[in-house]
Design a protein that fits this description.
This protein is mainly α. The protein is about 60% helix and about 5% strand.
């Protein structure tokens, strides 16, 4: 099995598994991005669309794998293998939008919100007594980066005069460049950029607007504080694992080691971190305060702010980030002008990192 096949298979398996389990780990009152009253969480339409969605994703994933394998068998071009992952992502989102449309239509036709008292809950303590940023969780990424710098500086005089700066789909180096500070330490710049980017996102999480349950505001506020803490730690852990991958890749470059499994030095640590983060966040179930009485309120129907159940656009909301409706984590408020600035900064940073990585 070639490196390209191994990587494509692992990514496809991860995407397919995640797509199948997402409905189970999403909040029960936002099935497929549609806000529904708690009493409608188990509505036959929701149950049926969840089942249909999973069948569609499973069949689509199998078809994508077969087509990708067939194309590779005919052409022998490993560079085409990642297309199966792209196709699978397209199938995933296509199935999501179909389920979103059907549930939204059933909600409107059935008048699911008629006669209900809608409300919102606010945790003012997030401003007066916010959770602390987990600085200790940033330490591993910083330590790995500093270690990479020290090893690089010490070994620089003995490095080969020509360094492998890029690897092909088969894992063999296909581009070399003369030794210089830029070529030798380009991956260190990637480490610094990735660590800064993910640390910045982790910090932004603590300024996100929570989506609290007005029926049980105390329990949901406590849950959200824990969720923020876990989410930021997961991002910082991901940064550390990416830095570990960059360290391994740098060692290969500096020692002149040639191995067809070189790309896995970066991918495997990142995949492991992603899987662990998903398991931790998914296991953080929403909880209620057993002594807390139901207020009788239900979430307000705010579907108009969610385009397709995925994109949040609300110019009246000053929050930059809000919890995702489908899946785990947070998303930007695209109605906030700051989101455009944030995205522009991320794009520029990613562009610089790619330039450094490819330019070697």
């Amino acid at each position: 099995m070639t490196v390209a096949i191994a990587l494509s298979s692992m990514l496809s398996a991860l995407v397919l598994t995640l797509a199948l389990v997402l409905p189970s780990i999403t909040g029960p009152t936002v099935p497929f991005g549609v806000r529904v009253p708690a009493r409608r969480a188990g509505d036959p339409t929701v149950v049926r669309q969840t089942r249909i969605y999973r069948w569609r994703v499973l069949v689509g994933g199998l078809v994508a794998a077969v087509v990708g394998g067939a194309i590779y068998g005919v052409t022998g071009e490993t560079v085409l293998l990642p297309l199966s992952v792209v196709v699978l992502l397209g199938v995933f989102y296509g199935c999501f939008f179909l389920a979103n449309h059907e549930i939204r239509a059933a909600k409107a036709a059935g008048g699911w919100y008629e006669g209900l008292h809608q409300g919102i809950a606010v945790d003012t303590g997030l401003r007066t007594d916010p959770p602390r940023f987990p600085w200790l969780w940033l330490a591993p990424a910083v330590i790995v980066t500093v270690t990479t710098v020290v090893i690089g500086v010490v070994s620089y005089p003995s490095m080969p005069e020509m360094l492998a700066v890029h690897y092909g789909a088969n894992g063999a180096p296909n581009r070399v460049a003369a030794k210089s500070v830029g070529t030798a330490f380009s991956l260190v710049f990637v480490q610094i950029g990735v660590t800064a980017l993910l640390a910045g996102i982790a910090a932004a999480i603590f300024h996100s607007r929570p989506d609290l349950d007005p029926a049980h505001p105390v329990g949901s506020a406590r849950w959200y504080r824990q969720y923020m803490s876990l989410g930021s730690k997961a991002l910082l852990g991901l940064a550390a694992m990416i830095d570990v991958g960059m360290l391994g890749s740098s060692l290969l470059r500096w020692t002149g080691t040639v191995t067809r499994w070189a790309p896995l030095m970066v991918v495997l640590p990142v995949l492991a971190a992603v899987v662990v983060a998903i398991m931790v966040l998914a296991g953080n179930n929403r909880e209620r305060d057993e002594g807390e009485k139901d207020t009788g309120l239900t979430h307000r129907d705010d579907d108009k702010y969610w385009r397709g159940g995925l994109f949040y656009v609300n110019r009246d909301d000053h929050a930059l980030m809000v919890p995702r409706r489908f899946g785990l984590g947070w998303t930007l408020n695209f109605g906030n002008p700051k989101s455009a600035m944030f995205l522009a900064g991320v794009v520029v940073l990613i562009g610089l990192l790619i330039t450094l990585r490819l330019g070697g």
